[in-house]
């Protein structure tokens, strides 16, 4: 018996393509020009009057910046096998990725750094992250610990964040944008959950070059700027969906405290 797309509950590939094009705010003419096809052919693909080849589908997905996980969904919807694999970090094939992550985390010491997946669940962290998790409720640290929930929850880091409304606005905007760009319902649900938490938001333009994280500690308020590192050429889902979030000192006082002061010795 043939398995149909309808029985799988998967929308037709043309519908998915149109959803991604609309999400990226591109006209058919714009996307067709970028992908090197006619607008007429693209229209036929979206309406189901034509069936895309595997190569055409991957070309359109590349132009639309569709995440690898969703590219597999497009291929399945068109009747093709997925091309992007998913290996666990413990797999021998991922040894180089694991080593690279360990090197990056170690290199950021004595500054806090974490590895998170697409859902913002904690994958790994360096020792200095203890500065952030000090006093956090145990249930927020149970695997899979979500770093955004840990940051904004009243039993998490939130009471210690001196500029909580500003930091909340930054994180919620970032999460909302990621939920929209990826179309991931899990990210959208996480966004709704975190929006409902107390703490307020302050969307005013911050002083300086970026929104800092200002954290209350036993040594006073320490200020951090966050940076993100990703595997830019990954073709494996696990590697493509991992990122390293590092927190670097925003002022010399914070740098000094982490390098050699009491805070640095605790980490």
UniProtKB/TrEMBL annotation:
SMART domains: HTH_XRE. Pfam families: HTH_3, MLTR_LBD. InterPro entries: Cro/C1-type_HTH, Lambda_DNA-bd_dom_sf, MLTR_LBD. Residues 17-71 form the HTH cro/C1-type domain. This is Helix-turn-helix domain-containing protein. It comes from Geodermatophilus maliterrae. The lineage of its organism: Bacteria, Bacillati, Actinomycetota, Actinomycetes, Geodermatophilales.
